[in-house]
Design brief:
about 290 residues, alpha/beta, Rossmann fold, N-(1-d-carboxylethyl)-l-norvaline Dehydrogenase, domain 2, eight-stranded mixed β-sheet, 12 helices, 8 strands, about 50% helix, about 15% strand, globular, binds nicotinamide-adenine-dinucleotide
Length: about 290
């Protein structure tokens, strides 16, 4: 990468994790958050994660204070202020194509010519984001996994227009965060979302068919496959709205019936029961 300034857009579940790993790797991070509430929540989450690392002896308290102060000082609601001078941008806003395209159009105008524009989208074609900019060769997918500080793998998605130079700089950047990468072709859901959402959708369909309770489906799959979380726990962690959005994108792009979201999930999204972040999903959270 050419420089050390990273801008993360969105401070939700993923954005806050990405901000944390970039700060820990020594990057100068700015955060663009349009919601006061998610900024506050994200900062609290980062703080408590970093404090946990001090207890394990991996960080010192004064290092945590410096990181948290720097992130807080560089948080802004203005895309112009946050992205100005950035070398690498990672967009992590809602899974909404119009919103993401609007942000990419703006970023293209604001960011220095050399800046790479990355998206953490779970499923949208990177080509559709690249196409709204005048630098399609510098647009790339950087798909982190949840929870970002813990999960080692990152899918890097190369669109038809992404240059080899952008790919190699992105791989270098992601490796500098202590992550491992796999480069994937631009295809709906890539590898991870396509596989994971199919399994999660099937679990909800099993529940709709009353094969077993939510708790029991989770329990038997955890015990049988050694999964750390059952599918409903994972749905609540990822966000049911995100999973429905991913399924809809894959279904609409491919017409593959197996990706049509289970009705129950769509209804839960309408009810606002989107999982942990909402306090209620398949389980309740206090
Ligand atoms: N949740 C997961 O497990 C997961 C995993 C991998 C990738 N993703 C992808 O990451 C992206 C973010 O997902 P998330 O789970 O963090 O969502 P989220 O709902 O937790 O957070 C989205 C954030 O975007 C912010 N936002 C919306 N519009 C904005 C704007 N114009 N400017 C700045 N901020 C804005 C919101 O305030 C919110 O904080 C999505 O594209 C999603 O598909 C999610």
């Amino acid at each position: 990468m050419n420089g050390k300034k990273v801008c993360v857009i969105g401070m939700g579940v993923m954005g806050s994790g990405i901000v944390q790993v970039c700060a820990q790797a020594g990057y100068d991070v700015s955060v663009v958050s349009r919601s006061e509430e998610s900024l506050k929540k994200g900062l609290e989450k980062i703080k408590s994660d970093l404090l946990r690392l001090t207890k394990k002896g991996q960080l010192k308290q004064d290092e945590v204070d410096v990181m948290v102060d720097a992130i807080t000082a560089n948080a802004t609601a203005s895309l112009g202020d946050g992205a100005k001078g950035a070398d690498f941008v990672i967009e992590a806003v809602y899974e909404d194509m119009e919103l993401k395209q609007e942000i990419f159009r703006e970023l293209d105008k604001i960011c220095p010519e050399h800046a790479i524009l990355g998206s953490n989208t779970s499923t949208f074609p990177i080509t559709s984001l690249a196409a709204v900019t005048k630098r399609p060769d510098k647009v790339i997918g950087v798909h982190f996994m949840n929870p970002v500080p813990l999960m080692k793998g990152v899918e890097v998605i190369k669109s038809l227009m992404t240059s080899e130079d952008t790919l190699s700089k992105t791989l270098e950047f992601v490796h500098s965060l202590g992550k491992e990468t796999v480069t994937v072709k631009d295809s709906p859901g890539f590898v991870t979302s396509r596989m994971m959402c199919l399994i999660l959708n099937e679990a909800v369909k099993m529940r709709e068919n009353e094969l077993a309770s939510v708790e029991d489906i989770d329990k038997i799959l955890r015990l049988s496959f050694n999964w750390p979380l059952g599918p409903f726990q994972l749905l609540d962690l990822i966000g049911i709205d995100i999973v429905v959005a991913v399924l809809n994108t894959i279904y609409n792009e491919t017409g593959w019936e197996r990706f049509k979201p289970a009705v129950l999930m769509t209804q839960m999204v309408r009810a606002g029961w989107t999982g942990r972040k909402a306090g209620k999903g398949f389980y309740e959270y206090t």
